[in-house]
Amino acid sequence: MLACGPVLDEAVVRDVLRTALRSGGRFAEIFAEERRSTSIRLDDRRIEELTEGTDRGAGIRVVAGDTSAYAYSNRLDPAALAEAAEAAAAAARGGSSPDVVALRRRAPAASAPTIEPVAEVPRGRKVAWLREAEEAARSHAREVRQVVVGYGDSVQRLLVASSEGTWAEEERHRVRLIAQVVASRDGVVQTGFEGPAALGGAEVLDAHPPAATGAEAARIAVTMLDGVPAPAGEMPVVVGPAGGGVLFHEACGHGLEADTVGKEASVYRGRLGERLASTLVTGVDDSTVPGAWGSFALDDEGTPAARTVLFEEGVLVGMLYDRFWAGKDGAALTANGRRQSYAHLPIPRMTNTSILPGASDPDDIMAGTDGGLYAKALGGGQVNPATGDFVFGVTEAYLIEGGRITTPVRGANLIGNGIDILAAVDAVADNFDSRPGTCGKDGQGVPVTTGSPTLRIARMTVGGTGG
Amino acid sequence: MGGRVAELGDLCRKALSGARDDEQVEAYALESVRTEVRARGGEVDALTSASSRGLGLRLIVGGRMGYAWAADPSPEEAAGLLEAARGAATHATPDEANVLPEAAAAEDVPGLFREALAGVEPDRKVALALDLERAAVSANADVRRVEEVMYGDAVSRVALASTAGLGSEYRRTDCWCVASAIAERDGDLQTGFSFRVAREPDELDQEAVGREAAERGARLLGAVKPATERLPVVLDPWAAAAFLGVLASGLSAEEVQKGRSLLAGLVGERVASEAVTLVDDGRLPEGPASSPFDDEGVPTSRTSLIDRGVLRGFLHNTVTAHRDGLGTGSTGNASRPSYRGVPGVSTTNLLVEGGPEPPEALMASAGRAVYVQEVKGVHSGANPVSGEFSVGAAGLRVEGGTLAEPLREMTIASTLPEVLQDVVAVGSDVRFLFGVATPTILVAEMTVAGR
């Protein structure tokens, strides 16, 4: 249900596409959007900032041979669009261009039914959400020293049209609330973070009450005050629900994005059909999960959302494609063509990436682990897709001693290699959880979720200061 | 940028015109034209050209601040921004430190804008990217392809106007090249990265960037995982710059005032070894982060931060200076990501003063150590509040004072305060990496974890 008409007029779009193909490109596309956003920041009991903004612009892509030319502007008037189309055409010269296929208008899509659009929520109610989160964090424990709460919402209306006849419109509503808490005791300072996010309107914060978010961030910070320095060296690592998803995303997912594979920079190149992971591992990327932070109705090239199996019982069976790389490899589109905004070329990106639940009881996995590390929640990570080497920060971790979770540890990092780690998974539980985040690649951030059950890696390197 | 409805300065002034007597309003506008060319296999992989501009409005009334922005607003929409900022301000908490800077004359940074870049033809930009790739794949027998090479440039203009009498504008040109080379031998695969920024293409030296990326990748081939132990660590300028990035947030008065800096309350104290001298200089002609005035119109300056190990002070914008109430004034470090946000505080060009000896002498004095050329996960693995960190690293072993076998899949861990105190010596090889200039740094001891 779009609030108003399309971002651009159909006749203007057709002219722009014709101009873009003037120098012999084989494919032309326009992506236009308008995005209204609000952000609010509460810091140390004060509403420091309330910002409202409107972003708009269009990007025009022309493909000639293997070259992609892209020109964007944040002016949406026909003259500016024509200028951008000419710039893109001049940069991508080719042989002879096809005609622009008649645009097939589809009914505008919405990625999830938004019950209470943020545009109808008064500023005062949004401010109250931040106050609730702060209050809950402060009342959680007397060790809580500082609380920062951030709120962001956006409504993005977009249009994608191409010379191959694509005409796709979508309206995406997003809401996110994050709480960061600093706790201290006897000179020890620790931080905690919690940040639910989803597609939708005000109802997102009914499902994830701000008070619960504040309390959870405080619980993590206070728990870590009792932490001892993390052990260092190789040991069994049990990863908590959702945490395994971060691992899967960083250690494997990036290497399965078709541009990484196509540029021969992936350890997974040419290995489809091989058993690379433990038979316990089945992993998927799924942009159809209703309301999930990484979901959409259409990807940023107009391809309808889809579910792609990447590993089936340890066998590599799928990769993630955008239009360019699917064409190059003769593969089917998987709806993974995403971009941060009109200012970016679409590239293959993950959406909601998960390891699926297995059969073990999570308590049995713990009981069967004599000693090691329980990485309950993982923070950000980084991977070198060419080698598969990765490193992750662990935001909440405990020692495992005699099959039991014991002392919290801090400053732990997990380091390893994607293929090795997936092969070393020796237990997968029947629970599941997922968490939202922002994934960065080539300077573009896009919303994603990572999910998994509790799982165990037989041996993994833990970096810490505890020796 | 022909056909624009209004000049940037006019757009700013018009946006202020509806301000009421009791309101302080500032308009910030940014306009840029950018090009990026990526090359692969001797061909252009992607070329992006962009033109963008936008306006951000900061409104303060009774100490309450509101902000509203829009991309390429029409004059009517710009007037609407004032109303939105006013509405936003009513929900903010009053803070008497919320003030706008008074107008002040700023001197130009010599050479910040170069006609030479503004006039570069697209074909020349393509050639620069192709040259860069060629340099990367012809420098070393084990490097035959790249993960990414890119040439990019931007011509930008910034304008500011305020009800406090400010009315300033400047133009700048920037260009950069980035190379990530892939080295391969006997099934082992490693990547090496290099990067340069300049004001015009003739000053970039793309050949050196390509060569360096190749060499940094090739020297990691055959890397092994080291045993876990504590030993001296030599941080090369790239690795040192990554750590300085974490320290930089602690040098912001905003973080100090909010109790989030590990350096809070330590002015006048020894926070590092005598080998460490650190300054912020927003006027350095060759500095990538130089500008005549900061993102709220205050002239930039040079600020001593750590002098031979002793903490001298912090970086301020107008609000943090006012909050400190010491009449210190802003150091010219107001910073915003674009017109989309309120100015915060950040470093400009952060410089670690070099020492007398070359990096080879540092390694010789260490004897047996780990040389770190790359750290990963600094943002997730380092806690800027407590200073604790554990990050992934790649590099080489130092045996008998010289570089030996390559190392991978290791982590290095310590705390920032300990590392600062444990700096044994800094090299003479100061280099700019993004906005940080640092030499090689020898640290007495850290935990290096591997097997």
List keywords for this structure.
heterodimer, A: 467 residues, alpha+beta, PmbA/TldD fold, 2 domains, nine-stranded mixed sheet, six-stranded mixed sheet, B: 451 residues, six-stranded antiparallel sheet, 22% helix, disordered N terminus
Question: What can you tell me about this protein's structure?
Answer:
The complex is a heterodimer of chains A (467) and B (451). Chain A is of the alpha+beta class and 467 residues long. Chain A has two domains: 216 residues, PmbA/TldD superfamily (PmbA/TldD fold); 236 residues, no CATH class. Helix content of chain A is 21%, strand content 42%. Chain A is built from ten helices and 25 strands. In chain A, strands 1, 2, 3, 4, 5, 6, 7, 8 and 9 form a nine-stranded mixed sheet that branches. A six-stranded mixed sheet of chain A has the order 14-13-12-17-24-23, with helices on one face. Chain A is globular, with a radius of gyration of 24 Å. The N and C termini of chain A lie far apart (58 Å). With 451 residues, chain B is of the alpha+beta class. Chain B has two domains: 210 residues, PmbA/TldD fold (2-Layer Sandwich), CATH 3.30.2290.10; 229 residues, no CATH class. Chain B is 22% helix and 39% strand. Chain B has eleven helices and 20 strands. In chain B, the strands form four sheets. A six-stranded antiparallel sheet of chain B has the order 3-2-1-4-5-6. In chain B, strands 10-9-8-13-19-18 form a six-stranded mixed sheet, covered by helices on one side. A five-stranded mixed beta barrel of chain B has the order 7-14-15-16-20. In chain B, helix 1 packs across helix 2 and helix 4 runs parallel beside helix 5. Chain B starts with 7 loop residues before the first helix and ends with a strand. The N terminus of chain B is likely disordered.
Helix-strand blueprint:
The complex is a heterodimer of chains A (467) and B (451).
Chain A: H1 10-20, E1 27-43, E2 46-64, E3 67-73, H2 78-91, E4 104-105, E5 109-110, H3 123-140, E6 144-162, E7 166-185, E8 188-194, E9 197-199, H4 204-207, H5 210-225, E10 228-229, E11 233-239, H6 243-251, H7 258-262, E12 283-286, E13 307-312, E14 315-316, H8 323-329, E15 337-338, E16 347-348, E17 352-355, H9 362-367, E18 371-384, E19 389-401, E20 404-410, E21 413-417, H10 418-423, E22 425-428, E23 433-441, E24 444-452, E25 455-463
Parallel strand pairs in A: 4-7, 5-7, 10-20, 11-18, 17-24
Antiparallel strand pairs in A: 1-2, 1-6, 2-3, 6-7, 7-8, 7-9, 11-25, 12-13, 12-17, 13-14, 15-16, 18-19, 19-20, 19-21, 21-25, 22-25, 23-24
Helix pairs in contact in A: 1-2, 3-5
Chain B: H1 8-16, E1 23-40, E2 43-61, E3 64-71, H2 75-89, H3 115-118, H4 122-137, E4 143-162, E5 167-185, E6 188-198, H5 206-218, E7 229-235, H6 237-250, H7 253-257, E8 278-281, E9 302-307, E10 310-311, H8 318-324, E11 334-335, E12 344-345, E13 350-352, H9 359-366, E14 369-376, H10 378-381, E15 388-399, E16 402-415, H11 416-421, E17 423-426, E18 431-433, E19 436-438, E20 441-449
Parallel strand pairs in B: 7-14, 13-19
Antiparallel strand pairs in B: 1-2, 1-4, 2-3, 4-5, 5-6, 7-20, 8-9, 8-13, 9-10, 11-12, 14-15, 15-16, 16-20, 17-20, 18-19
